[in-house]
Design brief:
mainly alpha; two-stranded antiparallel ribbon; 7% strand
Length: 87
C-alpha cells in the first residue's frame, strides 16, 4: 500500500485541527451574537415602553440625556378652514 510522507500527513492533520478549531470558534461567536441580538431587542423594547410612559406623564418632549432636562415639543398650529378662507 502506498503512503504519503509522515511530514505531509502531519501537515494535513494540523490543517484539519486548525479548521476544526476555527469552526468551533465561529460557532461560539455566532451563539454570542445571537445572545447579544436578543438582549438588544429586549432593551430596545424597554426604551419604547419608557418613551410611552414618559409621554403619558410629560406630554411630547425632548430629553437631554446629559442632565435630564427636557423641552416640550410644540405641535404645529393648524388653521381652521372656513368658507371665508376659501374665497
Amino acid at each position: 500500500m502506498d503512503k504519503i510522507t509522515d511530514e505531509q500527513l502531519s501537515t494535513i492533520q494540523n490543517q484539519q485541527k486548525e479548521l476544526n478549531t476555527i469552526l468551533h470558534e465561529v460557532g461560539v461567536i455566532e451563539a454570542q451574537k445571537h445572545g447579544l441580538l436578543h438582549k438588544f431587542g429586549i432593551i430596545n423594547q424597554e426604551v419604547e415602553d419608557l418613551k410611552i410612559e414618559l409621554e403619558s406623564q410629560y406630554g411630547a418632549i425632548n430629553i437631554s440625556i446629559e442632565d435630564g432636562t427636557y423641552t416640550k415639543i410644540e405641535e404645529p398650529k393648524t388653521e381652521e378652514v372656513t368658507a371665508e378662507n376659501n374665497v
